[in-house]
Amino acid sequence: MYDIRINNDLRMHSNMCIRHKFFLGRMAAEEQKIEKLQDEINQLREELQRKERELFDLKFKKYHDNKYCLGLTATDIMRYSRQMLLSQFSITGQIALKKSRVLIVGMGGLGCPCALYLAAAGIGELTIVDYDEVELTNLHRQVLHGENDIGIPKILSAYNRLKNLNSNIKIIPIHTHANSSTLTDLFKNKTFDVVVDGSDNVATRYLLNDICVLNNLPLVSGSALQMEGQLTVYNYNKGPCYRCLFPVPPPPDTVMNCGDGGVLGPVPGIIGTLQALEVIKTCTSCFTVPGIIGTLQALEVIKILTKQGGVLSSRLLTFDACEAVFRNVKLRTRNSRCAVCGDDPTITTLIDYEEFCGASAHDKVIDVDILRKDDHIPVKELSSKPETLLIDVRPTLEFAMCNLDNSYNFPYSYIKKGKDLDKLRKKLEDYSTNGNEVLIICRRGNDSQRAVLQLKEIFTDLPLKFLNVLGGLYAYSNAVDSSFPIY
Amino acid sequence: MVGIQLFYEMNVLPITVEFSGGAELLFDNKRHYNIDLPNKDKWKLSDLLLWLKDNLLSERPELFIQNNSVRPGILVLVNDSDWELMDTVDYVIQPNDKIVFISTLHGG
């Protein structure tokens, strides 16, 4: 009952999110139609789930008693037999899993496969925390979410998928942003045996580290970006914690996110993933780093809970998908002077992690506003200036994905480094005989502002006025032509 | 044998240096370097950091070196072990050592 109640709360919330999301720039009629359909689908889905549950219960009812086996039902024995046949695991391992409570923070590329395998393996209680809603750009790696989940909270689609996979475990979805106060509340009300870090930013990584040290819990930490992944277990068996390794957070501008750096996505399962990897590698080099690391995280959780040993503590596993190389390196032991897990800790309660890292606790881009008012031009005015030079300062790779007619690509990184500026000068000089305005555009309207500032400085001698296209191509898609892809 | 002979004759110190996790972006986007360090009495890791900065680093030195060590968020490995298990910047480099710089990832 508990789960279903949460589920309904979430559904109401998700409808509100959808309402809010589609409010922007959509005709009211279309919006109403979408909302009505969404409500109908939700009702049908609920009814379908109810009937499926009824069928499952009828089919397996006869296996619910347990007169032949201690601690597990007959369904459990059948269901989990393939892992219970392992001598390292056995019935003891299965009972240990059934009694365990695991917290996963982040239902993204790492959290999805990790939760999938843990639910499948029969963890007793799985708490999943995420604040975000499903977007189309998530689906290539966040395998619990489907096309029909776009716009709803990730934990709701994850909850539905996981519950569908294993109705015998307790899944607690919590739609919140993990910060010092929400996690303090969560830990007041619940206890956990292991925490999984599937987050996407530095501040949350320090937060989870500290709360695990303060509660004496192992932290299974994974990360993935582009073609690489990293995995280790912190605060376990005299191994180091995150702060032992990284007492000082990295400078914010050295941290890249999936939205900027890209990430090659996922199919859950190490073996399936690696098999797919070898097959796919022959035609393209696309595959599944977060899937692999998330799955490995699930594996570490099971090893800790079933006390099998061989836990990846004081070691770091790195995976280089380009070369298909796993590297398993030896890490330092716990630092007795560590600020949080040392002998005389200075951090004894949670701090403000965004302030500590000088960066926010999510991987969304924060918009900048560094120009004067008259340095901007609204995106709607683009069409009235077909003859005006339009410079797209996105990376070449992104420009090749989609671009506006007659736009000229000169990446911001070139301007920053001073690369090929003579080529750009030639272009500008040729142009300056017919026009005096130059429009600068990028993906979201941030780099274009930085570019305007620098171009003004570099080309002071030319009779040109550099203007930033407000909001970039995202704004173009929202306000002018929605068929331009938002990526 | 030829390699060893060459090593003694020229007195260079052959090592491999690798970058990953994004650290390679500071080094021309190349992950693997075979390097012969020039003749010198003793090569400490701190000397190597400066040498890399002067000879291989292609951009923004502050994203690699800060306060005579690597910047926060980069792990240094000597032959697949954390340099904290050695003497960090004071470790004396041996012939054929493999030094790896891994920038930690945060994405998920």
Automatic annotation (TrEMBL), chain A:
It is found in: Cytoplasm, Cytosol. ATP binds at G109, D130, T137, N138, L139, H140, R141, K154, D200, N201. This is Adenylyltransferase and sulfurtransferase MOCS3 homolog. Pathway: tRNA modification; 5-methoxycarbonylmethyl-2-thiouridine-tRNA biosynthesis. One of its GO terms (molecular function) is URM1 activating enzyme activity. Residues 20-61 form a coiled coil. In the N-terminal section; belongs to the HesA/MoeB/ThiF family. UBA4 subfamily. GO terms for biological process: Mo-molybdopterin cofactor biosynthetic process; protein urmylation; tRNA wobble position uridine thiolation. PROSITE patterns: RHODANESE_3 (PS50206).
From TrEMBL, chain B:
SUPFAM superfamilies: MoaD/ThiS (SSF54285). There is a cross-link at G108 (Glycyl lysine isopeptide (Gly-Lys) (interchain with K-? in acceptor proteins)). InterPro entries: Beta-grasp_dom_sf, Mopterin_synth/thiamin_S_b, Urm1. Its main location: cytoplasm. The keyword Cytoplasm applies. The modification 1-thioglycine is found at G108. Transmembrane segments: none annotated. Gene3D superfamilies: 3.10.20.30. One of its GO terms (cellular component) is cytosol. Belongs to the URM1 family. Acts as a sulfur carrier required for 2-thiolation of mcm(5)S(2)U at tRNA wobble positions of cytosolic tRNA(Lys), tRNA(Glu) and tRNA(Gln). Serves as sulfur donor in tRNA 2-thiolation reaction by being thiocarboxylated (-COSH) at its C-terminus by the MOCS3/UBA4 homolog. The sulfur is then transferred to tRNA to form 2-thiolation of mcm(5)S(2)U. Also acts as a ubiquitin-like protein (UBL) that is covalently conjugated via an isopeptide bond to lysine residues of target proteins. This is Ubiquitin-related modifier 1 homolog.
